[in-house]
């Protein structure tokens, strides 16, 4: 109770206490607001694909997984090509 009396009589201590209350709350509010929906504005985000797959041979069959992945991405209409 004595500390609260000192806060009301000393303006510098009151400002410091108020700052220690408000600043962390403001910081938390900004961070929560920024991370509520991180995918809201990714519609026009450019996507690039690099395929350096040289392929492999497995059980006598030639396998090019990189080409198959690129084909699947081109056929996916959620990406603008």
From TrEMBL:
This is Phage infection protein. One of its GO terms (cellular component) is membrane. InterPro entries: T7SS_ABC-Transporter. It is found in: Membrane. It comes from the Bacteria. Its main location: membrane. Keywords: Membrane, Transmembrane, Transmembrane helix. The keyword Calcium does not apply. It is a multi-pass membrane protein. Coiled coil: none annotated.
